[in-house]
Amino acid sequence: MNEVDAILRIENLHVSVDGTPIIKGLSLTIHKGEIHVIMGRNGAGKSTLASVLMGHPAYEITEGSIYYMGQPLEDLAVFERARAGMFLSFQYPVVIPGVQVGTFLKKSVQSVRDEPIKGRAFRKELNEAMKTLDMDKSVLSRYVNDGFSGGEKKRLEVLQMLMLNPKLALLDETDSGLDIDALRIVAKGINQVAPHAGCLIITHYQRLLDHVKPTYVHVMIDGQILMTGGPDLALELEDKGYDWIDAVPEA
Amino acid sequence: MNEDANDAVGDYRFGFHDPENATIRFDKGLSEQVVRDISALKDEPKWMTDLRVKAYNHFIERPMPDWGNCHSLNQINFDNVTYFLRSSDATKNDWDDVPEDIKNTFNRLGIPEAEQKWLGGVTAQYESEAVYHSIREDLEVQGVLFLDMDSGLKKFPEIVKKYFGTIVPHTDNKFSALNTAVWSGGSFIYVPKGVHVEMPVQAYFRINAKNMGQFERTLIIADEDSSIHYVEGCTAPTYSTDSLHSAVVELIAMKGAKIRYSTIQNWSANVFNLVTKRGVAYEGATIEWVDGNIGSKLTMKYPSVLLKGEGAHAEVISVAYAGKGQHQDAGAKVHHLAPNTTSNILSKSISKNGGRSSYRGMLQVTPKSHGCRSKIVCDALMLDSESRSDTYPTMEVGNPTADLEHEASVSKVSGDQLFYLMSRGFTEEQAMGLIVNGFFEPFTRELPMEYAVELNKLLELEMEGSIG
Which domain holds residue A234? Predict the structure, then answer.
């Protein structure tokens, strides 16, 4: 493995929230063009991993290190991570009352790209992204996530991802609560970003993987990655659940 | 500016001041002679002089209010106020004729530019009097009167005499008495029957001198089935000593008429802003107050509407922003005095860095007024735990058919909102700015676009350097 190429390198990561250990010695390296899928039961620490990577202040790293593009991640504030090309698609996107989606997207893209964006070019880009995701333009004048259905929220997350064009995309249960059509559309968005980025997808379900082909599937149990495999591992988990892994000795 | 003062005003952009080149300046302090001198200087009719003197006597006798922020109110030193200051010999109608310093000030405030782009008329008041005034020709042709109040009294004394002080009498409160005694400047507007003034007209009030008292008086009469939108803005330099702004505004909406009165008050943090605003709406008429309070040390202002004719409607949409050392005591009063009248009150307030915002409201439905509807919504957003927000609603409902709704909420900016926005590349300050703009959006969208953009910029500036 060429270390220089790694977009994300996590070494022996330990994370606590309010003094309770959640992640207990996790290591993971993601290169450009790779799609990593993390599966596991509720409470295994999957979402904690996503939040910690994005810099949520509630989580404390007690041991280990994270490198993003070769730099220690802890040096970067949340907004600096975003500006450096990290993106988190939230499991529960937050409502921002009174802020229109269009305004929000433009300001966000502006702050991340660090260059003035031209109105017409931006609109063209936005139109294309919305077309890819089969979104109606009327969403632009609605307030961010206000009154959105679960599916609409997830679609808006993916729209943001397309517009911000990240180097590292973290997707926290972006597929939850989607009907099959929405799932296909979200997958389309992921596949568009994936070739130029490292992707970390947290999911409970194999069905997303019918549309997104993972490079690796990891099984996370009790704050650790206990097993890593290819796409077939997801099918096996779908079939057998997680209990059999607990019994397998640590690799 | 010392550090404390700097801290208190944050990034107030309008705190600059010009040299004080007064052509006439009265000595500080108030007396019957000062009142008579103001009237004499303006060569007013006797009835106005008499009214001023009567109001002065009432002001002297009337105690200070015993409610609201008494501690702050009692800091006002009426002897240390300049009650009249003339800085230009006449009101000009060409910016090139306005004295250089003053012209530059209004250029910096963007007034001539706004006038060219989107306004139907402009009056610019500097200290006690209007220094510039203009109205679009097409409005003049339609018979619309838009003058500064002093000229209004000179040219249309009968109309002024008929309405002046009928909506806000000098006995209404201590500060309406003060205003009636020493008023100077303000706007006088008459819109003839059936005329709709499509472009807003604007008044801009600027205090420049230290310890200045500005007491403008505005009277707007919209005749039957006419409409007008009046916009006012106000700023002042930042000084370590206080200034006083105490205006009276009277609106009269005849049958079927509509008046919208929008204010963006952005006084510096050393200005007491104590204003009485009231309108009367006759049958089927509408009065809308769109009232933004961003600046000042203490504001006490409760735009009111008397719904006197059947089917009349009142709308009061207000926002208040209270930063360090500021108290915004604002609200709305609506009196349903006729059947089937309706009202909407929306109040949004933000307190930050120990600032205090209060909503004080009055809703009255008289026994004869059946079929009235009213909705009141008060939302407060606290940006930290040192700040304060309170609500003082009063309802007097004398008719059982009234349909009333009252919602109130107090919220804080959540950590989840900040994290979400920061994960999209916004700094914490930018995230706060976005949340604040969003919170005020129901107000901002009621403003002319140029004002909305300006207000959003202003609030974003307020958020800058605010997070430790």
Answer: 3-247
- pTM for this entry: 0.87
d(CA B269, CA B292): 15
| Backbone angles phi and psi of A14, in degrees to 5 | -120, 130
**Among A17, A78, A113, which would you mutate to test the B interface (most chain B Cβ atoms within 10 Å of its Cβ)?**
A78
Mean pLDDT across chain B = 92
Characterize A79-115 residue by residue with b for buried, 16 or more Cβ atoms within 10 angstroms of its Cβ, and e for exposed: bebbbbbbbbbbbebbbbbbbbbbbbbbbbbebbeee
Is A166 near chain B, with CB under 8 Å? no
Any idea what the CATH number is for the domain that residue A74 is in? 3.40.50.300
Count of alpha carbons within 13 Å of A12, Cβ hemisphere only?
3
Q: Specify the pairing of strand B121-126 against strand B129-135.
A: antiparallel
pLDDT value at A29 more than 80: yes
Structurally, how many domains does chain A consist of? 1
**How large is the average pLDDT for residues A183-191?**
94
Report pLDDT digits (tens) over A126-154.
999 999 999 999 999 999 999 999 999 99
Residue A59 to chain B, least CA–CA distance (Å): 12
**What does the angle CA B119 – CA B122 – CA B128 come to, to the nearest 5 degrees?**
155
Tell me, yes or no, if A97 comes closer than 8 A to chain B by beta carbon: yes
- Taking only the tens place, the pLDDT of each residue in A46-75 is 999 999 999 999 999 999 999 999 999 998
- The pLDDT-based confidence of B59 (bands split at 50, 70, 90) is very high
- Subunit contact A98:B428, Cβ cutoff 8 A: no
Q: Which residues of B touch A (CB under 8 A)?
A: 414-417, 419-428, 430, 434-435, 437-442
The nearest alpha carbon in chain B to A82 belongs to B425
A230: closest CA of chain B, how far (Å): 30
Tell me the shortest Cα–Cα distance from A88 to chain B, in angstroms.
7
Q: How many CB pairs under 8 A join A and B?
A: 76
